[in-house]
Amino acid sequence: MATAPSKVVVLMAFMAAALSSVSMAAGPAGLQHGFYNSSCPKAEDTVRNVVQGMIRNDPTMGAAFVRLFFHDCLVRGCDASILLDPTTSKPETEKTTIPLRGYDAVNKIKDAVEAVCPGVVSCADILAFAARDSTCASGGFTFHMPSGRLDGFQSIADEVFQGIPSPRFSSKNFLIASPPRASTLRT
Ligand SMILES: *[C@@H]1O[C@H](CO)[C@@H](O)[C@H](O)[C@H]1NC(C)=O
Q1: Which of this chain's residues are annotated to bind Ca(2+) (predicted)?
Q2: Which of 75, 96, 120, 152 could form a disulfide linkage to 40, CB 3.0–4.6 angstroms apart?
Q3: What is the pLDDT along the chain (187 residues), one digit of tens a residue?
Q4: Residue 59 labeled ligand binder
Q5: SS3 call for 147
Q6: What is the gyration radius of the CA atoms in the chain, in angstroms?
Q7: Ligand 1 pocket residue status of 35, Cβ below 6 Å
Q8: Any catalytic annotation for residue 71?
Q9: Residue 172 and residue 175: Cα distance in Å, rounded?
Q10: What atom of ligand 1 comes closest to residue 37's alpha carbon?
């Protein structure tokens, strides 16, 4: 088993990768710092306030948000496909394949963001902001999380465990092994 400190290092490594990543799900302008500066200036503050309150109530929520973002990004980029519900024609999705926590919490964050600017902020960016704010609220660093991700409409259950990095990896091996669909590292 990895020790607690090395888990933190791996999560931090993942957040660093996300920070420098170019998501394949990005809009035409690519990812930008402050993508919602003019369309929804309160977006990031709203996510941060809700996430901080949730972590104060239940400190384990931080890990839940980072884990949701991690699994979302591993399948076809950070496109919120992890949030898609199964349907009668498609009973198997990422969500049904791996048990994760935090879906209700993400809905609450989404509701808070919709209340300040309806229909503007993607769920993919909400997951990214929530993961960033979780690392900070859990004692890590904060950083400008690039935004402008688009939400995907496909959730591929079979891809959930493909190329997933081992929890035993060192942070260096983790970054080497992280598939390009999750992050493109710039050195
Ligand atoms: C948003 O505002 C910040 C701070 O002024 C700035 O650094 C960033 O480039 C802006 N982003 C966009 C997309 O306008």
Answers
A1: 72, 75, 77, 79, 81, 94
A2: 120
A3: 334 444 555 555 566 555 544 444 566 668 999 999 999 999 999 999 999 999 999 999 999 999 999 999 988 889 999 999 999 988 999 999 999 999 999 999 999 999 999 999 999 999 999 999 999 988 888 999 999 999 999 898 888 888 677 778 887 777 776 655 444 443 3
A4: no
A5: strand
A6: 15
A7: yes
A8: yes
A9: 5
A10: 1
